[in-house]
Specification:
It is a single chain. By secondary structure, the protein is mainly β. It contains four helices and 19 strands. Strands 3-2-5-8-9-1-4 form a seven-stranded mixed sheet. Strands 10, 12, 13, 14, 17, 18 and 19 form a seven-stranded mixed sheet that branches. The termini are far apart.
């Protein structure tokens, strides 16, 4: 009798608090655990970095089922998603800027494995500071499902400072470029490489500040850094540096994965008598005055 009572109490507790029993998964609760620890420090910094999290939940056929907005600082980093039995695709963006055009349709392309949005006039705001991307999670709610999903965020924006030291150039110009980038490339929600006005420091150095989308090693041949300048004895502006941006960053042996870092400082250090500079990436000497770049 005592064992029977214990069994009944155990089953009652499971029914009340466990949510899902055996194969009856209707209206089960799926618990989503969110974190951001894929950074150079290796610690979870989601509460410090992410103000708002947008969840896109798609049905198996790719139609948008729900879009939820959460604030980790108040809602917590573990949230409950009430979903019925079936197959879903889940994608998350952190700190996603709202489009100025509100009539936007979203769907999930299972073949491409990414979020696709459609709008004739879709323009995102200029600011891209602190944008995060959560890899797509596909899952099926059935009798074998544990109803617990862990979602790791990746910093989708990078900040790059290009510092020009010495050289006595005039009419300088620096640019980052990316070829063949578009809205569907590697889950990037919008294509953006923008430059802030150059800053001249008290020491006379120039700093060009850039915001970029997520940097991928596979894009090495399609991305680059260019610096132009004119010496006092020259009549025309010339290209001084023209090199692959990503190859340059990865030349620093401590940068093992571009996703772990979100800020880079590239120093172009010119010495009298040399046209080509020494180049440092995050204070590591990667090129020592080559003849050609």
């Amino acid at each position: 009798m005592r064992r029977t009572t214990q069994f009944v109490l155990t089953m009652l507790f499971t029914l009340l608090f466990g949510g899902c029993v055996w194969e009856d998964m209707t209206n089960c609760d799926v618990y989503l655990h969110i974190k951001y620890d894929y950074n150079k420090d290796g610690i979870n910094q989601i509460l410090e970095e992410v103000d708002q999290l947008d969840l896109f939940i798609f049905l198996e056929d790719g139609r948008l089922y729900k879009r939820l907005s959460l604030q980790p600082k108040t809602d917590g980093t573990s949230v409950k998603l009430p979903l019925e039995g079936g197959t879903y695709h889940l994608m998350a963006w952190g700190n996603l800027p709202p489009p100025t055009h509100q009539e936007v349709s979203y769907h999930y392309d299972a073949h491409l494995g990414k979020l696709v949005y459609q709008s004739e006039d879709l323009v995102f705001q200029d600011s891209i500071a602190g944008l995060f991307w959560g890899e797509t999670k596909s899952f099926t709610i059935d009798g074998d499902n544990r109803n617990s999903i862990e979602l790791s965020l990746i910093k989708n924006t990078k900040h790059i400072d290009v510092v020009i030291i010495g050289g006595a150039f005039t009419n300088t110009h620096c640019e980052l470029f990316a070829e063949n980038r578009n809205h569907d490339n590697e889950n990037t929600p919008f294509d953006l490489l923008n430059s802030q006005p150059k800053i001249e420091t008290e020491s006379g150095n120039l700093i060009y500040r850039f915001n970029t989308h997520r940097l991928l090693a596979s894009d090495a041949a399609k991305s680059g850094l260019r610096f132009y300048g004119k010496k006092s004895h020259q009549s025309d502006i010339e290209s001084i540096v023209n090199t692959s941006l990503i190859d340059l960053l990865l030349a620093n042996p401590y940068i093992d994965d571009l996703d772990r870092f979100d800020h880079y400082t590239i120093k172009l250090e010119f010495t009298d008598g040399f046209l080509s500079p020494r180049i440092y990436v995050n204070d590591w000497l990667v090129i020592d005055m080559p003849e050609d770049l």
